[in-house]
Model the fold of this input.
Amino acid sequence: MTARRRPCRRGLWIGAHPGAGRPRPARATDCGSDGQTAPVAAEAGGAGETPARKQVRGFRRAYVFDGAQTDGQPLPEVAPVLLTGEAPADLWDELAAQVTAHGYTLERGDCHGANGYTDQSSQSVRVRDDVDDAQAVKTLAYELGHIECGHVAALPTYATCRGRCEVEAESVAYVVTAAAGMDASGYTFAYVAQWAGGDVPTVRQAAETVTKAARTILRHLDSAPQQTDDSAPADIPAAA
Done:
């Protein structure tokens, strides 16, 4: 691509995963997304290895620019892509336990074009059942992000500030999955950019909520019992 940043344009700095944007071998779990928008099918490929748990000790600054701040040929449209491959051992169960602790039931099944959704009226969370384990876990983290950020309990606010709420929930899911050794940057960056619409205040306002919610989820993950044997991780439950 030949687009160039215009002189004297200020970028927006975001907290990027330490390895984001740096060359590394491709993995089946690279890129992906959650959200209540229709998913984009990923290219066919084999399942990757189960990512190992790791601890995220911080994030580095990465500058991004809105397309309107560039000259040259139009930038290509970048859309979120579903995660493929396996998920870290026990992560589904640990996130599911947090969802049920909030009083919600969890199920797998058709989500009518979405990757997942949370229904306050029935106190239920549903994750689509036709995706790889990595994507299912990512979607679950996203829905838990909505719950932990308070979006489900404050639906009028969600309706009027949906862009900010989507940025918050997706950012929480990114931090949580990154802490588990997954890389969802290929999905998250595009998804957040779409909902933020280049609105810097939207991203800034989300930061405090994202930090608080992600820390709460990760604290519970750290305290959850870990699988200690060498047996293969249990399959993530599919629809009955």
